[in-house]
Specification:
Helix content is 64%, strand content 0%. It contains five helices and no strands. It has helices at 5-24, 28-49, 59-64, 73-84, 107-128.
Length: 129
């Protein structure tokens, strides 16, 4: 089976571009979700690069499942936890007591999500270089 890690990483970079575009368009809920997706796909790319399979959508868990020899993960795991809060609530109204998701996300959340996704992607880029 072919190693598709490069494809996963390329899509992670594209999802990050979407996060930026959504933020500029003030669609902050979508910026947050796209940031989560970018980080998730980047970490899955690294797993594939290392010859491992990775399942699920929890960025913090995917980071924890990397080999112990991968240095610098503690801080990224914490950032992954923040991004994981954008996976479902940023898209589904029933994730909040009231209001549509777009009413719960603003520029602070999208800025933080994009920043954390950038850091995770930068880490993956360096590991796969």
């Amino acid at each position: 089976m072919a190693n598709r890690s490069v494809d996963w990483l390329a899509q992670a970079h594209r999802d990050l571009e979407q996060a930026h575009d959504s933020r500029v368009g003030e669609r902050h809920e979508w910026a947050c979700f796209a940031a989560h997706q970018a980080a998730e796909k980047a970490v899955k790319a690294l797993h594939l690069h290392l010859g491992q399979e990775a399942w699920g959508h929890v960025v913090a868990h995917l980071l924890r499942e990397l080999p112990e020899t991968t240095a610098g993960l503690a801080d990224l795991i914490e950032k992954g936890r923040v991004l994981d809060n954008f996976y479902i609530p940023a898209r589904y109204p029933n994730s909040h007591p009231a209001g549509a998701p777009f009413e719960h996300y603003g520029s602070l959340q999208s800025e933080e999500g994009i920043r954390y996704a950038c850091e995770i992607i930068k880490f993956v880029d360096s590991q796969m270089a």
